[in-house]
Write a structure and sequence with these properties.
Elements: H1 12-15, H2 26-33, E1 39-40, H3 52-61, H4 74-84, E2 91-94, H5 97-108, E3 114-118, H6 123-131, E4 135-139, H7 148-154, E5 159-165, H8 177-186, E6 192-196, E7 221-226, E8 239-242, H9 245-254, H10 262-271, H11 275-298, E9 303-304, E10 310-314, H12 318-326, E11 330-331, E12 333-334, E13 343-347, H13 351-365
């Protein structure tokens, strides 16, 4: 008996939604190509791994995983509030900052409402908007960077949200403080500005706008941060958002109970104060970025100067180079899905991983 079709049950805005395609895991690549000892420079993870304090805390907490987690994340919220100088009711915890993006879209969009974002920015912005029956309004980048003037001009009467990635993924570029302040002045008070600062800890430019310092009582600004990047906890999926208490309360109404597991909360709380690990990670990234830039210049390859822990480099046929690198056990990210078909995105790794990538890239570029 044939299974009945469900197509008529799926709303059209979901039927046309393209699923997110994550970077290939090492296990899949090695199984597919019969390799061992592969390296992954595809998903902007911390090559040094998690904070040693987080690892110790996880070992101590593993015996209690038969208990449900703290559904309100009390201790982590309190510590974040203390560290950031905000109220605990202004902090939301998520299963990665991705979940908070989804909660914002579900809370504040409705059919016919729109959200403004950049083209060639993090693809999840558009997907959460479409999944909530909203309309994504994408504004072209300018010089690989958010065009804040054009984005402000795109905000209309139906706009509920604006998504800003700074540094932008996948280009690694930033907009600076003056441009951001001009942008804030132009956005109507009823529009929620979502500042996705997932890579903020890597930025060393003095003109970088620290959006946590831009919150005001009369401004609907939500800052997103994550423990997946510089803190090295990507596998535990935990991030947070800071915003007006009324906005955070709206997210709490629809988030799932126990959305952040107990081990993630424990590890994040321990990692948050491990400044030594953060600084070591930042230094490793700085040195690795300089090395990659130097090697790209030696090879005559154009790249986009990055403020994050990854770099976008033009290699010609991006898909072909990606495949050639895979066969050498080096995983990077092809960029055709972001309308950069001639580029790949490379995470900054350890010194050894960076050198191995460059050697593999040289081989991949040979005729």
């Amino acid at each position: 008996m044939k299974t009945p079709s469900i197509q008529h049950l799926i709303p059209p805005w979901l039927a046309s939604l393209v699923p997110y395609q994550p970077g290939k895991p090492i296990e899949e690549v090695e199984r597919e190509y019969g390799l061992r000892g592969s390296i992954k420079l595809a998903s902007n993870e911390n090559p040094l791994g998690p904070s040693p304090r987080a690892v110790a805390a996880l070992r101590a907490a593993i015996g209690d995983v038969h208990r449900y987690p703290d559904g309100g994340g009390f201790y982590l919220k309190q510590r974040l509030a203390e560290k950031l100088g905000v109220g605990a009711d202004q902090v939301a915890l998520g299963n990665g900052s991705n979940e908070i993006l989804e909660l914002l879209a579900r809370s504040f969009l409705r059919p016919g409402a729109d959200a403004v974002m950049s083209e060639q920015a993090f693809v999840v912005y558009a997907s959460v908007v479409q999944a909530a029956a909203g309309i994504p309004r994408a504004v072209p980048l300018r010089d690989f960077t958010h065009d804040l003037d054009a984005m402000a001009a795109a905000v209309g009467k139906s706009t509920r949200l604006v998504f800003l990635g700074n540094p932008n993924n996948p280009t690694g570029t930033i907009y600076r403080r003056d441009a951001f302040e001009r942008f804030l002045a132009r956005i109507p008070r009823g529009v929620i500005i979502v500042a996705d600062d997932a890579y903020a800890e890597y930025v060393e430019d003095p003109e970088y706008p620290r959006t946590l310092e831009c919150h005001k009582p009369d401004r609907l600004l939500v800052t997103l941060r994550t423990f997946s990047k510089i803190y090295g906890l990507a596998g535990l999926r935990i991030g947070y958002g800071v915003g007006p208490a009324e906005v955070i309360a709206a997210l709490d109404r629809i988030r799932q109970p126990f959305n952040v597991n107990s081990l993630a909360q424990t590890a994040a709380l321990a990692a948050l104060d491990d400044e030594e690990h953060v600084e070591r990670s930042r230094r490793t990234n700085r040195e690795g970025m300089r090395y990659l830039e130097h090697e790209f210049e030696r090879l005559g390859l154009a790249y986009v100067p990055s403020q994050a822990n990854f770099i976008l480099v033009r290699v010609g046929d991006g898909a072909a180079v990606y495949e050639k690198l895979l066969r050498q056990g080096v995983i990077v990210r092809p960029m055709a899905g972001y309308a950069f078909p001639e580029h790949v995105r490379v995470t900054v790794g350890t010194a050894e991983e960076n050198e191995r990538f460059v050697a593999a890239l040289e081989r991949a570029l040979r005729p």
